[in-house]
Specification:
elongated, Arc Repressor Mutant, subunit A, 78% helix, mainly alpha, 0% strand, 12 helices, Tetracycline Repressor, domain 2
Length: 209
């Protein structure tokens, strides 16, 4: 008997709900017990599924923390591609970065906990930095195309690196202090890039004190 489209839709929703439940359970257990001490069996038990079911979604427990990394990068890339071709490049990068903020703010507690896990585990932090490099690469390629430069030229590479740093430091400030406005922090980062010499001047350092 053929499966009706509504059944397919229900099945996909159930699979997605299980996947999200496994992610939430894993982050909670990692924070509570420690990443190394948490087993796949522990995670599966919280969600009331088998370890075999866990492996249908993730190959290893590390994958849980990076499950949506590719989808986020693709969404960020699409946000960049949608910006007007005649827009100032930094404004395009700022706007696309705000799309990332929206993704994080959809699940603030989970995202903050996940970021703290990265900071407390050298292995996870190294993996996170590799993903950050991918974001920098996407920015550099976009900037090179917009500016008519080779992707390996200094300016696109610098724009990619600066954008990645703004994203990372803004997320870190937000994760460490729930009262931090993530969107405003991203804007502040791009403002500083736009006026880096001014922001780094001795006068500004004196004001900061």
């Amino acid at each position: 008997m053929a499966i009706a489209p509504v059944d397919l839709g229900r099945r996909e929703r159930k699979k997605e709900a299980t996947r999200e439940a496994l992610i939430a359970a894993a982050v909670h257990l990692f924070a509570e017990k420690g990443y190394d001490a948490t087993t796949i069996e522990d995670i599966a038990e919280v969600v009331d599924v088998s370890s075999r079911t866990f492996h249908r979604y993730f190959a290893v427990k590390e994958d849980v923390l990076f499950a949506d990394a590719e989808a986020r990068l693709r969404r960020f890339e699409a946000a960049l591609a949608a910006r007007p071709a005649d827009e100032d490049i930094l404004e395009s990068l700022r706007a696309a970065a705000q799309v990332m903020a929206e993704m994080l703010l959809d699940r603030p507690e989970l995202e903050a906990a996940r970021h703290r896990l990265f900071m407390n585990s050298p292995a996870l932090r190294a993996q996170g930095l590799r993903h950050t490099e991918e974001w920098a690469r996407v920015v550099a390629e976009h900037a090179a195309s917009r500016l008519g430069l080779d992707g390996h030229d200094a300016l696109p590479q610098l724009l990619g690196g600066c954008t990645a740093v703004v994203l990372r430091t803004s997320r870190q400030q937000w994760a460490n202090n729930p009262r931090t406005d993530l969107r405003r922090e991203i804007d502040r980062g791009f403002d500083m890039i736009s006026h880096l010499a001014e922001a780094a001047s001795p006068r500004q350092k004196t004001k900061a004190r």
